[in-house]
Amino acid sequence: MWTSEECAKYFLCLEEEVFDFKCSAGLFFDVNRQICDFKLNVDNCDITAETVIPKPLLAEANCPEKNQLGCADGTCLPQDYFCDGSQDCTDGSDEAYCDVEHDPNGATPCNSSSCLLPDCFCSKDGTRIPGNLHPSQVPQMILLTFDDAINDENWELYSQIMFPSELQNPNGCPISATFFVSHQYNNYHYTQKLWNSGHEIAVHSITHRGPEEWWSYNATIEDWFDEMVGQANILNRFAKIKMEDIRGMRVPFLRVGWNRQFLMMKEFGFVYDSSMTVPFSNPPLWPYTLDHKMPHTCTGKPFLNKVDRNKQVCPSRPYPGLWEIPLNQLEVSDFTCAMVDSCPPNLSGEDVYKMLMHNFKRHYLSNRAPYGLYFHSTWFRNPDYLSAFQKFVRDIRKQPDVWFVTNWQAIQWIRKPKTLDQIPRFEPWNCRRRFEKIDTACSIPNVCKLHSRVFQQDRYLYTCSECPQKYPWIRNEFGLE
Ligand SMILES: [Zn+2]
């Protein structure tokens, strides 16, 4: 007989190394489904080898009723039960083959005669320019994004070094970027200031918890709400960011959460996700809506029996009107990388400059898909990298058709494409927005010393709002007693 202790243990093999994991207290590891679940739901703890879940028969079962499909053992169930996230076939076959290629309720391929701007955008291979403009008429958008907490570790970089006032877009507006903010150690006073100066603030979860695969495999829809809507609430309360200005999200570690993540996004009203990486592609891909099947393969095929847990788990269902800003990869000699800091670590400053420029040209000289540069602030601690980046920015700024915009500004352009000569009158890219006094960051924030039950210690929260009673956290995002 196996003990509870043993049933909670599981192992992951990544790149030929074995890692130990343990389910949270009270949960067992389900060998077939490869997730932690309540003890009652797990009856396969004694299985020592991973059993192969059989393929469902689907239409081949010749079910008597319309809208029914067959499990692997021939049992007929309503089509809706397949790939809905809960197991209905006793053999588990209804939930075992649920990537975009196998989900019987999956999104259909792009249909460009019915998928029309501004609310729907797709193309067969994802490389088509919105509005079918000629590349020479398309502004080359640069999307700078920064993930994780904003605080004293990176404030100088974000407030002065990266965005000096002389660095402007062709219309004279300051250049802007997108910040995907996670809660722990985040300074909400600084966050409010960045929002006030025209940057976009988006969501990157409250806990940023590990293990990484939790986001793809274990997080329930409730967890997705708690993490992402919770963080939107925190940003709204403590950085005073208007709810309607919180539009985007990025999953921690880019661990896309299959349909569960996107169901939450649709319910809450998020406008876009920016977590899916595209296999290296020349030319690169434009953002698209999830009305139809994604125009690229998900980097990994996790639902096929051999689970590669190092890969992404993309949504299989359609989500009309929801945008994906996919992460095109950078090419650096023989490598490709999605986040700039996941590129090979041994590059010199000169290599970095060449890499930024080479990939810029792959966009600028082809279909001008937005060029995303995705950072964590620590990457800039290498002074050679910082100056290589600054030189790159100065050099491309000389082009009159290069624009540094936020993700939301990019989506607005895609929704209503404008040629270069129309852009001076394109409202979403001007910088005339004035913040009301009540929305403007205070000069001296409240410094709240708060006890955190979770961390069993005090944490500081910087905010222009009133101090809460407890350190805000998941399921208590307003920090109530
Ligand atoms: Zn992160």
UniProtKB/TrEMBL annotation:
Give start and end of each Chitin-binding type-2 domain.
1-47
Would the keyword Ligase be found if you checked this record's keyword annotation?
no
Q: Name one GO cellular component term.
A: extracellular region
Give the intrachain disulfide bonds: 71-89, 83-98
Q: Which Gene3D superfamilies match?
A: Chitin binding domain, Glycoside hydrolase/deacetylase, Low-density Lipoprotein Receptor
What's the domain of life for this entry?
A: Eukaryota
- Keyword field: Disulfide bond
Question: What biological-process terms (Gene Ontology) are attached?
Answer: carbohydrate metabolic process
Listed GO molecular functions? chitin binding; hydrolase activity
Q: Which PANTHER family match?
A: CHITIN AND LDLR BINDING DEACETYLASE 3 (PTHR45985:SF5), PTHR45985
The name this protein carries in UniProt is Chitin-binding type-2 domain-containing protein
Species of origin: Aromia moschata
Q: The organism's lineage?
A: Eukaryota, Metazoa, Ecdysozoa, Arthropoda, Hexapoda
